[in-house]
Specification:
The chain is mainly beta. It is built from 3 helices and 12 strands.
C-alpha cells in the first residue's frame, strides 16, 4: 500500500486511495512501509533506526516502486506480451495452490485412501488500479490492459510473490478482467484481474 498521504485533491474531489482499494479488494493492508518499521539498514550502525534499503527480492524481482503520487508501494505487478506492458499500481496479490487428491472410502474402516495425482494450476488474483497524471484519465493504460487480455495466448507476469513459484518460462493466462465501479475518479481506475499459471511441459515420446 502507498506510504504517502492517501488524500489527493483533484479539482473539487477528494479521494482516498487506500479506501478505494479496500472497497474493491475487501482487504485492509498495512500502509507501506509500516511492515518494515524498526528494521535497520545494513548501513545504519548508529542504532537510531532507519528503513531497510533493499530494493530487490532474492529472485531478482523488484519489491518496491514509486508511484505517480510520489509514494512507494510494495511489490509492483506488471503484465507484458507482444511488446506491450501494463503495470498495475498499488496491487494486492493473492495466490492459491491446490492438489488433486482422489479419496477412496474404505468400507468398515474410518477414513479414506488418498491418491495424489498432481497439483492444479496456480490461481492468482490481483486487485489494484490504473493511475494517470493528476486530473488525466488513464485511457491509454486501460487500452493496453484490454489488448493484453485479448491476446489469445499466455502473457508474462512479473511479481515478486509469483516469481517464487514460477519457472523461468512460466507465464499466465488472463481469465477474468473487471473494472469495479466503487469510487472511480478521473485519474484512478480500480481493476481486478484473475489469471492462472501456464507451465511449459516437455513431452518425451
Amino acid at each position: 500500500m502507498p506510504s504517502h498521504s492517501p488524500i489527493q485533491t483533484i479539482n473539487t474531489n477528494r479521494i482516498n486511495l487506500n479506501q478505494i482499494l479496500e472497497s474493491v479488494s475487501g482487504f485492509k493492508g498495512a500502509a507501506f512501509p509500516a511492515a518494515w518499521a524498526g528494521v535497520k539498514s545494513q548501513s545504519d550502525r548508529s542504532g537510531t533506526g532507519g528503513l531497510h534499503t533493499t530494493e530487490l527480492a532474492d529472485n531478482g524481482t523488484i519489491l518496491r516502486k514509486k508511484d505517480l503520487l510520489g509514494g512507494y508501494y510494495f511489490m509492483p505487478v506488471s503484465f507484458s506480451a507482444a511488446g506491450r506492458t501494463c503495470e498495475i499500481d498499488c496491487a494486492l496479490v493473492s495466490a492459491r495452490l491446490k492438489k488433486t487428491v482422489v479419496r477412496t472410502p474404505m468400507p468398515g474402516l474410518g477414513g479414506t485412501v488418498k491418491e495424489l495425482s498432481g497439483t492444479q494450476d496456480m490461481e492468482i488474483s490481483i486487485t489494484g488500479c490504473l493511475m494517470g497524471p493528476k486530473g488525466i484519465w488513464p485511457e491509454g493504460r486501460i487500452n493496453t490492459l484490454r489488448e493484453l487480455f485479448e491476446v489469445n495466448d499466455a502473457v508474462s507476469l512479473k511479481c515478486a510473490l509469483t516469481d517464487c513459484f514460477f519457472d523461468i518460462d512460466d507465464r499466465v493466462v488472463l481469465t477474468d478482467l473487471q473494472f469495479p465501479t466503487a469510487m472511480q475518479v478521473e485519474d484512478l481506475v480500480p481493476v481486478r484481474i484473475e489469471c492462472v499459471r501456464d507451465q511449459v511441459f516437455e513431452l518425451n515420446l
